[in-house]
Write a structure and sequence with these properties.
The complex is a heterodimer of chains A (698) and B (605). Chain A is 72% helix and 1% strand. With 698 residues, chain A is mainly alpha-helical. Chain A has a two-stranded antiparallel ribbon with strand order 1-2. In chain A, helix 16 runs antiparallel to helix 17. The longest helix of chain A is centred in the middle third of the chain and has 25 residues. Chain B has a seven-stranded antiparallel sheet with strand order 1-4-13-6-7-8-9, with no helix packed on it. In chain B, strands 2-3-14-5-10-11-12 form a seven-stranded antiparallel sheet, with no helix packed on it. Chain B has 20 helices and 14 strands. The longest helix of chain B is centred in the last third of the chain and has 25 residues. In chain B, helix 5 packs antiparallel against helix 6 and helix 8 packs parallel to helix 18. Chain B is α+β, with helices and mostly antiparallel strands and 605 residues long. The chains are: A mainly alpha (698), B alpha+beta (605). Chains A and B meet through helix 18 of A and strand 12 and helix 2 of B. Chain B: It holds the Pfam family SPRY. Chain B: It comes from Oncorhynchus tshawytscha. Chain B: Belongs to the RANBP9/10 family. Chain B: This is Ran-binding protein 10. Chain A: Its main location: cytoplasm.
């Protein structure tokens, strides 16, 4: 190119670059098609590996011209293909390049180009589309705007290995939502892509596999279909198992394990299937080993955590596989002290992945320890584990904080750990700090953990109370998120369990009766249940009952009536009857029931209810009312006899449930003033009178 | 020791034999590098190396405890019949806990090198899940195990580590830096405790082959990525030289020239010399040994005189070829017999030309062995055209008796130059070869059966075999029926008998000069035995008539010629191959486990 040599002589270096680039663009406008073609080819050779050149050409407006030439029916197929190649090359540059290309509407143009019969041109278009779509800056929705695109891409799968590779790669990057999964599934993605799993080309196999992993993720329909697919007379799960063989490339092993994990979580494969227990799980554990790359270790740990989350048996197996628990401790050693000194590049790499590694390890620990007490013990005994969690709670990365609090939550299900390591490491402090200001998802986990820390046997309960947690929890109950409301009220419920009058008073005051009753009409039944639980805990021990009822009796009785009349689950009604029973245990509070005929009728109704639990709770209430050691018991007994309760109690003695029999027995005998039973009764009632509610958050 | 008998009770059982076959097959597949003649694999518990509290049954695979089991002193163990051979690379066995007994301690001490039981032993205990390494105090290791569990133990002899498995799940490395020669062992301590061993009798619960495949890939990757050094150009030169010398060695003249031209390298040997050797080789491979001897004597005077053993081998072969009807000494009688055209079973496609009297057609006849050589077909046509006149060889074919005299007279000369020669040619070749190969490891290598590899026939031979079979099948129909002694010619038969007598004489002479030679005697006997059968081709010694038998003598002659020219008698390629093979075997002997996954066969395609 003589002109190329000429330019530098005349102008400065910077504008020289622009000038040469300009020349390339100018040649695209040559009237001679042959010269245009040569210009495009020269441009192709000039931009390869030269980001600066690419940027220049884009700025100079090469893209619209190339697109014009590409779309022009009069262009030779060779020219069109070369144009697509150059565009593909431009896309290989920076994210800004991609943005510019997308802004020039390259995607519809290329998709249109796929309709051309020329395979070389199609492949060039697909290669460019692939490069554009795998970039995070490209909106994936662009693939789905034209409904004819997906079916056409499916039909192109049979054209060549290249089309197979590019199309599957596009699919796996553009399948981000359940809707995308459904679209691809409905257009026969599974049948079309399954045969590619045994393609002679590794790249095609790999991309097809990746496709299946994104298609099956949390998708029951796809997963259920996948298990029955045969590839060359072999079940797909067996094909995946073969891909997990230890001599296969790591990427393939990991992706195949993901596919099987997703199919298992979607319920398509049983968790005790040998391909999960003996293949997928060990494969994922291997991915966590030191020998693997940091990225692989992150993915391996996250996938494994997901696989075994719901299954205690898998958790037990994983906990003994290849020293997994100890292996994970290694995830916290990045950046290592060695790399910091010796190798800047490695330090950079380590730093980049350090957060990811930590959060993955926390997730996996959380999953491992979610059910089995022995595993939890093993985890907390791992070197510096509690310290790591504590420091993880205050890390800058939200992801790490969330994972750390998940891990903490999982471990907080252990009574033993709550009593020991949790207290020793003052876990509550960072947790409280975390609760002050955190995104909702962190808040949910943190408040869940807090619920467990507030259990009556937890030594952390006292210091937490002193740190002003009540206000915080009350504000949670006003949250828009049902999960946060549940956790807030749940924590309050736990806190009120066997608490002294001061704490209870503070809860009632802080929450405010209005909020309390608002929660009693909460659309979320979980919130309702826990609010009832809180009420029940507040209404325990006689003095407390009377005190609460004297100030809020009217509202409470109203709320109880409403719930008993409303459409609620058995559990809710049972809980409500238990509250009535507690009220019946109060000295003055009793009268609120005895004077309320409506309530008495309801109790009578539930005593004859078909559900034993409800019968039991109702009978419980009656037995508290007629307990004869108190003032006015005789009058109450008379009134109840009048209302026909004795008949029901007699009937109940013939009931099949031994628990109920016992209860109705004591009730009938009490009404007969049989002194011998009174002693027994009193002991039972003492117990039942303080019937409260406390639960570990699972 | 009362249980000893019980162990062998089931030996005659057919089910047992079936299991035995399955075991052999599985062991062979798992540990292909193990030479069981040298290092047998463990197949059962040893009735000799066990405590008296231990009872064995079910082919010495089931172990039960029959002691008191009151305390740790009552613990007893049994080890396998053999230690784990290093050539396994990765070794694995499993034990199923059939019954755990009432008490607590059930231990699996897999490895005990000496019957001292406690020192250098490594174990995993079922009652507490601890691992024990040569001491009474354990380390927390894995889960506990009990009745119904299958516990496996995998010894990695490449990095000298060990891990256990429980019900097919790997529990992670238990020990590192293990010593060599460990025995699979189990220890029991509770009355009623029973365990069954699986040394490969049944499929393993743990997928050990998958684990092995990972290590195979690792080691292959290691070999593939082995740093060659910076002198890359030299590396390429070495490779080119390897190829070139191989081509030259086997006389693929045209290919070698073309290769040298393409790679711009030089061929050490003179072109004519290569062609000469090629011609002689072709003669031998065509079964025209008499002519080959003649040509050798002419082109390399003194060669055969210095190698009386080689000469004797050649002569014996010549006799066999006479029986075959392919040697020119008998063929010249049958030129007029059209039947003889089909008499050479090795070269069906070219046989019509054999019968022709035109001596120039020798080249065509000589071409036939290239078919069977088959390694570098491209040179066939070229060499065909460039082939110089062979009139000398063909004309000499009629004067064959002189060649016998030749050798007889010459062999007297050779007395001085070749004072030894107690063994056969072939063994001698391999012996001396071995000395070159493994100078540093003279012991134990010399008798190695694998020495044959050095003879340049490794693999190559297999290819030939396959081709010969296919060729042979093609001819079978028309040649079998017409196959007759010496081509069915009376005069030829007489000549053959005369030749036989001369051969007998040569043998006697050699005996006088060098003492008795068992190999020669056997060779001669085998050759003469052919005459005892009406159909020599289908008799117990008929295999000698197979054209493939010419290979050995051909390469021996070729090597001798090269040696006389001060050229290596083996091509460096075959040398390197042999060296690599030997090296891998040596690795097994010095207990380097990776040898199991670095087998030379894996790299030959």
């Amino acid at each position: 190119m003589a002109c190329l040599l000429e330019a530098p002589l005349r102008i400065s270096v910077l504008s020289e670059v622009t000038a040469t680039s300009r020349h390339y663009v100018d040649r695209l406008f040559d009237p001679d098609p042959q010269k245009v073609l040569q210009g495009v080819i020269d441009m192709k050779n000039a931009v390869i590996g030269n980001n600066k050149q690419k940027a220049n050409l884009i700025v100079l407006g090469a893209v619209p011209r190339l697109l014009y030439l590409l779309q022009q029916g009069s262009s030779s197929s060779e020219l069109r293909a070369e144009c697509a190649v150059v565009l593909g090359s431009l896309a290989m540059g920076t994210e800004n390049n991609i943005k510019s290309l997308v802004d020039c509407h390259i995607i519809p143009a290329l998709l249109q180009g796929l309709l051309c019969p020329d395979l070389i041109f199609i492949e060039a278009c697909l290669r460019c589309l692939r490069t554009v779509f795998i970039s995070p800056v490209t909106p994936v929705q662009l693939l789905y705007t034209d409904p004819t695109v997906i079916p056409h891409l499916m039909s192109l799968l049979s054209r060549s290995q290249r089309t197979q590779e590019y199309i599957t790669q596009i699919f796996s990057h553009c399948c981000k939502t359940p809707e995308h999964q459904t679209v691809l599934f409905n257009h026969g993605a599974i049948q079309n892509i399954a045969p590619l799993l045994i393609s002679p080309s590794y790249k095609v196999r790999m991309q097809a596999l990746k496709c299946f992993s994104v298609l099956a993720y949390e998708n029951t329909q796809v997963s259920m279909t996948l298990v029955n697919v045969l590839v060359d007379e072999e079940l797909l799960s067996q094909v995946f198992v073969r891909m997990m063989q230890r001599d296969q490339p790591i990427d393939m092993q990991l992706t195949a394990a993901k596919c099987l994990t997703y199919m298992c979580r979607a319920g398509a494969i049983r968790t005790d299937d040998s391909c999960i227990v003996l293949k997928t799980l060990p494969c994922l554990v291997r991915m966590c080993s030191k020998e693997r790359l940091l990225e692989e270790r992150v993915e391996g740990a996250e996938t494994l955590a997901y696989l075994m989350e719901p299954d205690v048996e898998l958790q037990r197996i994983a906990s003994v596989t290849d020293h997994l628990v100890a292996m994970l401790a290694d995830y916290f050693k990045y950046p290592s002290s060695v790399s910091a000194i010796t190798d800047i590049k490695r330090l950079d790499h380590d730093l980049k992945h350090a957060h990811e590694l930590r959060q993955a390890a926390f997730k996996l620990y959380a999953s491992l320890g979610s059910n089995d007490e022995d595993i939890r013990k093993k985890i907390t005994e791992t070197e510096n584990m509690m310290d790591r969690i504590v420091s993880g709670l205050s890390e800058s990365s939200v992801k790490v904080r969330l994972a750390a609090v998940r891990c903490l939550h999982s471990l907080s299900r252990s009574v033993q750990q709550l009593r020991t390591s949790f207290h020793d490491h003052a876990v509550w402090k960072p947790l409280m700090k975390l609760l002050q200001n955190a995104p909702d998802e962190v808040l949910v986990m943190a408040s869940s953990t807090l619920c467990n820390l507030l259990l009556e046997f937890s030594p952390s309960k006292e210091p937490i109370l002193e740190s002003g947690v009540i206000e915080l929890l009350c504000s949670l109950t006003q949250s828009d998120s049902p999960a946060l409301r549940v956790n807030g009220i749940w924590a309050l419920m736990n806190m009120a369990f066997q608490a002294d009058q001061k704490v209870k008073g503070e809860i009632v005051r802080a929450l405010g009766t209005e909020q309390l009753f608002r929660l009693l009409s909460d659309p979320d039944s979980n919130v309702l249940m826990k609010t009832l639980g809180l009420l029940r805990n507040l209404l325990s021990t006689r003095p407390h009952i009377d005190q609460v009822m004297s100030s809020h009796g009217k509202q409470i009785m109203q709320a109880v009536t409403l719930i008993l009349e409303g459409e609620h689950s058995i559990e809710v009604k049972e809980q409500t009857l238990c509250i009535l029973a507690n009220i019946a245990d109060g000295n003055t509070a009793k009268e609120l029931i005895m004077t309320n005929d409506d309530i008495l009728q309801k109790i009578k109704y539930y005593m004859a209810h078909s559900n034993v639990k409800l019968q039991l709770a109702a009978t419980f209430c009656i037995s508290n009312l007629i307990w004869n050691e108190e003032d006015g018991s005789q009058e109450r007994q008379d009134k109840l006899r009048e209302l026909g309760f004795v008949d029901i109690l007699h009937k109940l003695t013939q009931a099949s449930d031994p628990n109920l029999c016992d209860r109705s027995d004591t009730a009938t005998h009490t009404s007969d003033l049989s002194p011998a039973f009174l002693q027994i009764l009193s002991s039972i009632d003492r117990q039942t009178g303080t019937n409260t509610c406390t639960l570990i958050v699972l | 020791m009362a249980e000893l008998g019980a162990g062998s009770l089931l030996l005659g059982d057919p089910a047992f034999n079936y299991q035995e076959a399955e075991l052999n097959e599985r062991l062979k597949r798992l540990y292909p590098a193990v030479n069981e003649d040298e290092t047998p694999l463990p197949r059962s518990w040893s009735p000799k190396d066990k405590y008296s509290y231990i009872g064995l049954s079910q082919n010495n695979l089931r172990v039960h405890y029959k002691g008191h089991g009151k305390n740790h002193k009552d613990a007893a163990s049994v080890r396998a019949t053999h230690p784990i051979p290093a050539a396994c690379g990765i070794y694995y066995f499993e034990v199923k806990i059939v019954s755990k007994g009432l008490d607590f301690l059930s231990s699996l001490l897999p490895l005990s090198p000496i019957p001292g039981w406690d020192k250098h032993s490594y174990g995993y205990h079922g009652d507490d899940g601890h691992s024990f390494c040569s001491s009474g105090t354990g380390q927390p290791y894995g889960p506990t195990f009990t009745t119904g569990d299958v516990i496996g133990c995998c010894v990695n002899l490449i990095n000298n580590t060990c891990f256990y498995t429980k019900n097919g799940i790997s529990l992670g490395v238990a020990f590192t830096d293990l010593p060599p020669n460990l025995y699979p062992t189990v220890g029991l301590q509770t009355p009623g405790e029973i365990v069954d061993a699986n040394f490969g009798q049944q499929p393993f619960v743990f997928d050990i082959e998958d684990y092995m495949s990972e290590w195979r890939a690792k080691i292959h990757g290691m070999i593939a990525r082995f740093p060659i050094g910076e002198r890359l150009g030299e590396w390429q030169a070495v490779l080119q030289n390897m190829v070139s010398t191989y081509l030259v060695h086997h006389g693929y003249c045209a290919t070698a020239t073309a290769f040298a031209r393409a790679t711009e390298t030089l061929i050490q040997e003179d072109q004519t010399s290569i062609k000469n050797r090629q011609r002689i080789q072709k003669l031998v491979l065509a079964g025209r040994v008499g002519e080959a001897i003649e040509a050798t004597q002419q082109l390399y005077p003194g060669l055969l005189e210095h190698n009386p053993n080689l000469l004797f081998m050649l002569k014996c072969r010549q006799f066999v070829e006479m029986v075959n009807g392919t040697d020119s000494e008998v063929r010249c009688f049958s030129v007029r017999s059209p039947k003889s055209q089909d008499s050479y079973p090795g070269s069906p496609s070219l046989s019509p030309r054999h019968g022709a009297t035109n001596p120039n057609l020798h080249s065509a006849g000589a071409d036939s062995p290239t078919c069977s050589n088959g390694v570098t077909p491209p040179n066939k046509n070229k060499s065909h055209n460039k082939y110089p006149g062979v009139s000398s060889a063909s004309s000499s074919s009629s004067s064959s008796p002189s060649s016998v005299n030749y050798s007889e007279s010459n062999s007297t000369d050779s007395t001085k130059s070749q004072p030894h020669s107690g063994t056969s040619n072939q063994e001698e070749t391999s012996d001396s070869e071995m000395e070159i190969e493994a100078e540093h490891y003279t012991n134990g290598v010399a008798e190695n059966p694998s020495a044959r590899i050095m003879n340049g026939t490794y693999k190559h031979q297999e290819i030939l075999q396959a081709q010969d079979i296919s060729l042979g099948n093609g001819v079978a129909e028309d040649s079998c029926a017409s196959r007759q002694l010496c081509g069915g010619n009376q005069a030829a038969t007489e000549r053959m008998i005369q030749f036989g007598r001369e051969l007998q004489g040569l043998n006697e002479q050699l005996c006088r000069e060098y003492g008795k030679n068992v190999t020669h005697k056997k060779m001669l006997q085998d050759a003469f035995s052919l005459l005892a059968y009406s159909d020599p081709w289908n008799c117990p010694v008929g295999q000698q008539l197979d054209p493939m038998q010419r290979e050995n003598i051909c390469s021996a002659l070729n090597s001798a010629i090269l040696e006389s020219q001060n050229l290596p008698k083996q091509p460096p390629l075959m040398l390197a191959l042999g060296q690599a093979t030997e090296c891998v075997q040596l690795m097994a002997r010095v207990r380097s486990g990776s040898c199991s996954f670095a087998r030379v066969d894996n790299f030959l395609h």
